[in-house]
Structures are given as C-alpha cells and as structure tokens.
Amino acid sequence: MTVKTIHVSQNALSANREIAEQNRAKLDAAGVVALNLMASPGAGKTSLIERTIERLDGRVRIGMINSDTSRAAIDAERAERAGAVAVHLDTVGRCHLDAGMVRDAMACLPLRDIDLLFIENIGNLVCPASWRLGAHWNVLIASTPEGDDKPYKYPKMYNGVDALVINKTDLLPYVSFDLDNFTRGVEGLNHGLTTFPLSCRSGEGLDQWFDWMASIADRKAALAR
Ligand code: MG
Ligand code: ZN
Question: From start to end of 69-186, where are the E strands?
Fold first, then answer.
C-alpha cells in the first residue's frame, strides 16, 4: 500500500504564489509599481527608501510597507517623516514576509494615491528569496561591511533578484570588500544583473538609482492611463 504524502512546504508556496498573483493584479489595477526590498539587517533598506522619498518628493507618490519582527514601527515612522504613506507589519517573530501579509498591509494603504510602493522585507538573506509577494521588482541591497563572499553563501537570494544595490561604497577604503570577487560571484549566479553601487551616506551613485525609480514609476503611470 502506498501512503499519500503531502509536501506541506510545497503546498504553502503554491498557495503563496496564488495570493502573490492577486496582489500583483491589485497593484496593476491601481497603477502602482511595487518593489520587494531584501537585505541583511543594517544594509540600508530604510535609508535608501528615505533618500528616494526625499529626492522624488512632489514627482512620485511613494508608499511603504515596513516589516519587522516586533511592534517597533521605527522604520515606518522614518518613511512617514520623509513624506511617504507607510504601514508597519509586525510579523511577531516570523523571519520573512509572505504574500498574505502583504495583501493585508496593502488593504491599509490608499493604493490609488501611490505611484511607487516599497515593501521592506525582514532583514534576512535566506527565506525571503522563496516567498514571492506580487511585487514587480525584487531588489537586493548588499552593503560593503558584510563582505564580498555573500553571493557565494546565499546563491538563491542573488540568483532570484531583478536588481542589486551595493550600498556603503563610501566605506570601501576601510572594510575588506573585494569588489572583483563580489562581482564574479554575482555574475556567476545572475548574469548581467542591473547593479547600483551607491552610498546613502555620501550620496555618490544615488542619481542613477533615483533615475531608475522615476523611470519605472513613469512607465507604470503611462500603462495605467
Ligand atoms: Mg529597516
Ligand atoms: Zn523566514
């Protein structure tokens, strides 16, 4: 007799995919372009969001879904202070976002009044790679103090993203980060990946990122018209 085996994690992931598709349809209907920002803790997700809000103020309306493993809404408050409409998701200890959490957070936002939505994932380079949220762009933020070996250690994350930010380039003279080794690792996993080396602190390289943000928001608005 063969006993039927149910692969719980596979089922959970396929249920997640369905909700992610519904999220995408809602975003498209409202003319919102969404980015799923993933990184290790402290890489600069919120700082990059803040800089972007400040720079695109008056040109692109920005929303933010922040997630953290506690009630402390520190980062959502930072985004609001910078001028975005923000909601905080307390995952109660869970180490990644799933599409259902994002659906619930989206329900709290005035999507019709938002052009660009940042979804700040939990700081973690492992499981966020497996859980699609319905965002149009999956973006990874690496930072130079983390070291240049991360593509080799977290290949699934580097393999599955659509764009890469290398933050804290101002610290390159002070940390051991071999950019060539890092780039080789990324190229082996995700050939030709769009990459933005920048520093949220010094401002170098930020213009290229702002231009990209404005262009994806404009393209979305043109589609929605
Ligand atoms: Mg943050
Ligand atoms: Zn997780």
Answer: 85-90, 116-120, 137-143, 163-167
